[in-house]
Fold this protein.
Amino acid sequence: MADDAASPVSESEAASDDAAKAARTAARRTWLTRLAIAVVVLGLLWAAWYFLIGRNHVSTDNAYVNAEVAQVTPLISSQVIAVNVSDTAAVKRGQVLVRLDPTNAQIAIAQAEADLAEARRRYRQTFATSGALGAQVRARGADIVQARAQLTSANADLEKARIDLQRREAIAGSGAVSGEELTAARKSFTAAQAARALADARVSQAEATRAAATGELAANEALVSGATIETDPGVLAAKAKLAAARLDLARTIVRAPIDGVVTKRQVQVGQRVAQGSPIMTIVPLTAVYVDANFKERQLRNVRVGMPATVTADIYGGGVEYHGRVAGFSGGTGASMALIPAQNATGNWIKVVQRLPVRIELDPKELAEHPLRIGLSTEVEIDISGK
């Protein structure tokens, strides 16, 4: 009877275990079904996202802020007498940054002004000389007229002496003319010949003198012809020298070439700076851009002008910048490195390259949330073509 009593109890326990196992199996199947459904739903959602959104966007977190910075360099060599800015200072275009010693430039201006006054005086002197040389040419013309008149008189005297000599020689054989009178006639003829030769020489001399005066006048006229005192080459050269001296004086004040923030200031009061040596850098915060390094396969469908969205680590995902693709670099980061990678080995392994893509940002958004060079960003480009 004891065995009969124990048998129903064991049967009920076995039934209870079977029911529990069945319940656990049903619960497991329910969870597995739910998990499968969840996986399928997630897969469908991912597929929908990819076909509707994901495949139309490429993104990278290998992107950094950059800008076309302006290097401030003095255009003359001089000693620094004042520095008006420090690192991190915001400056406006045209603002005075550094003052250089103007003493040498002021002396150069004084010398150039003296040279200009001297050039103008030389022009006036040359112009006056032309008048004097013109008078000399006219005087030499009068000398020629006078010499020719004397030559005409000498020719007349020579002709008279020749005729008198011929008459006396014609009657000398008859004894009507004494030997002394014939000798005097011959002497007069010889003297008339000499006077005629002298008068002819005087004409030649006067003509030569006038030719020399005419040449001097022409040479002097060439210096002033077609010019005024302000357009004379010598005066223009002196003006240019004065303008250069004034420009050097203006360059003793070094001004900001652009709006931005001062960085890398390398100049101190009392320092002598050399022409062309950088003394500070100005970063234009309102004109920064992003260099996004995309993998080469990501760029198959990327084109210039496509819209892009940028988030910066400094502000987080709550701040988005909107921009566009401005262009592609001429080479990958590895090829443009100081020491390019060399993969020509027997164990060559292909390495995915990255190409820098420039993203221009909205200036209004940059003004609201300024960025600095070198900050990390994430970039997403819409390649849907919309």
